[in-house]
């Protein structure tokens, strides 16, 4: 009898437990339904509970409109965990928006209550705007994470066409596309893309307005990686991709090694980038003479290569300007070979268009020594005491210093300004393209991006009286921050305060020849132009 009683009690307990479980499953509060408006009054002591059943990946979107009471929405997962508390800082009136994506299937509970226990009561309207299926929610969330319509359409097409990414890559020889931004007259959206290696952890973009670089992200469920950048319509710059790779070895991948591979270089020229009308050969323009020769230097203890350009109509009885350009190999010193800056072609076109007065040009070869030469006083002595007298002995060059121009980019801009400072009686014009004015020229050199001290020339010009030198300077807005753009602006300001004549310009680009090839003519017109 006692055993039977125990058995009956056990059955009763199991039955009660089962009933409680069923009751818990059934007690879901009020069901949330799309477009059904729930209008209720609630006190500070109450909490109202609502529920909705969602499959993994579905979403529920809606709002609670508060009327005289500040409400909080607590959202619980099917397992009873508080996954979100929604309480925007809008006080006792306004909307509390909710947008919940489920990450497990089951019944989600929404509990409304007030944290302010001093308020008596208020009203609210609860409305579910959307309950989205997995497919609908996938497209919605993906669209929010993809910044352009082109990329979204590409992703959506990839859901049914596995070859669409390969077709896209094949149809774009350059690794970027340019698209308009609705409502913007000054900027456009540039999308860079690539397919990295299998062992690539991430990809970084270098170049353009974002000095620190941008990190690529994968287009969801595809092999394509992309990053976007808002770029002014008049910009021009080089960019590159770097792959940061991870390799593993060993039976259990115990060995990890990381490496960086520079994977791609490209050029971006926006629709309104400044014209570069003098860099291309014209059939109707007669070419000047180009002579590759050398000069023996006792100062440098070497034979230094130079290339000399004379106008097509060179007249030995007429005095000419003298233009000396550093880094000659990059500025067209190799006859019959392409160069980064085609100085002979630029000179031919400028002279043909009567934009500059007659000029003899000397392109000084670097011969692998630019880093040391272009900060060296000895190299400056070679230019002034040996090269210029030798050119004067061979060609009819004006005797006045204001007819002599030193030109160069980066260290070449520094060298032009430094040599002119030391020899202003011989050199009266400086054409500096992104001059490296951060250089101290000492053992404790400035960091090339974050200089601790003023560059050498900034202090020299600051401490001296004004010299008879005319300047043309240009620099890119995307050029190495404080060391380049900052130091160029500082040098300009010092020159202007001292009373120098300075034609200073900035372009939306970086530290590269694709800009300098265009601004060289600007500098020449400014310094030795016909007007």
UniProtKB/TrEMBL annotation:
Pfam families: Esterase. It comes from Marivirga arenosa. Keywords: Hydrolase. GO terms for molecular function: hydrolase activity. InterPro entries: AB_hydrolase_fold, Esterase-like, Mycobacterial_A85_antigen. It comes from the Bacteria. Gene3D superfamilies: 2.60.120.380, alpha/beta hydrolase. This is Alpha/beta hydrolase-fold protein.
